[in-house]
Amino acid sequence: MSTSPDTTEDRVIAKIRELADQHAALTKRLSSPEAMGDHVLARELSIKRAALEPVAAGFAEYERLVLESRELREALAGDDAELASMARDELPGLEHAAGEAIEHVKAALVQSEDRAIGSVILEIRAGTGGDEATLWARDLLEVYTRYAGTRRWSVDEMDLDAEPSVGGIRRAIINVRGEGVWSELSFEAGVHSVKRVPATETQGRVHTSTCTVAVLPEAEAVEVSIDWAGDVDEHITTAQGPGGQNVNKVATAVHLLHKPTGVEVRMQETKSQAQNREKARRLLAARVADIERQRADAERSAERRGQIGTGQRSEKIRVYRYQDNIVADQRLDQKFSKSKVIDEADLGPMLTALLEQETARRLAAL
């Protein structure tokens, strides 16, 4: 009677082998006429393949080391004394290397699904702090945009609600695309608190202001199914400015309501009704998919602690103390330089530390 893998290690190896097979299938599909004639499809396949590359390459190296170790153990049991002596010297090193290799593959395994998501919708909203909060929202938007440039990610502005009186931003929604975008920017979801002297402060007092950041992996068509005709109410209106006044005479703003979940989206960034509808549908799909993910995560959390994606998005994650030149992330013990994070838009070290911590947590939960 055949037996299925029943140990944790067996299940992990089976999953790794499955992902290595997916990598091979993606490699083959990338060279197909279909992908070669469609640059959008080719980009999506390339991102998914790159996400699996560390798993596939690492597993191939692990299997090579295991095979060599097996051959050395056979030599140990053989009649050739000289060959057995050589095997006895080399075997410990090979087995140690194989152990390290599979640990690296496991780390890549728990990151692979995140790295396969190559598009996110990032929303910044000014919180408490009045005009200073809108300036803080503007600063955060600039940081994310500049960091995306260093990572060679593309940024598409989907919606922007400015506060022209002070040059701030009440709300901004951007689409960021590129390899590794979700695995890094997902850590930005939550409340960002800044302590600094506002530009409008005449007495040099430190104020505390906040912004909320939401990061949604953009839903693929196969990931979320929406009945646009039956489940979504669509209203076309004229775009509105501060105070609700109409800013043009042509009805181009799109307002969508997803009746099953109550999710609402309004998009008026462009003067094209078709473009606003397309952006509104993408944002609505991402929000509905996020609700479904959170529901599934809540169900799984009763069975397994540390499940991916169970963190509360509404809690404060980071404090930026300008006078001390410190950025303190609530999830990490170490502090970071405000000059690096804000002035230079260098989020890399902080995001790397968060990714390493999350990887260790997920490995412990395997």
Structural write-up:
The chain is α+β, with helices and mostly antiparallel strands. It is 49% helix and 23% strand. The strands form 2 sheets. Strands 2-3-1-5-4-9-10-11 form an 8-stranded mixed sheet, sandwiched between helices. Strands 6-7-8 form a 3-stranded antiparallel sheet, with helices on one face. The chain is globular, with a radius of gyration of 25 Å. The two termini are 27 Å apart.
Radius of gyration: 25 Å
User: Helix share of residues?
Assistant: 40-55%
Low-confidence stretches: 1-5, 243-247, 303-314
Give the CA-based shape: globular
Distance between the termini: 27 Å
Compose a concise summary of this entry.
With 366 residues, this protein is α+β, with helices and mostly antiparallel strands. Helices cover 49% and strands 23% of the residues.
SSE layout:
Layout: H1 8-30, H2 33-36, H3 39-76, H4 81-115, E1 119-126, H5 131-150, E2 154-163, E3 168-177, H6 181-185, E4 190-196, E5 207-217, E6 232-240, E7 246-258, E8 263-267, H7 273-301, E9 316-321, E10 326-329, E11 335-337, H8 338-343, H9 348-365
Parallel strand pairs: 4-9
Antiparallel strand pairs: 1-3, 1-5, 2-3, 4-5, 6-7, 7-8, 9-10, 10-11
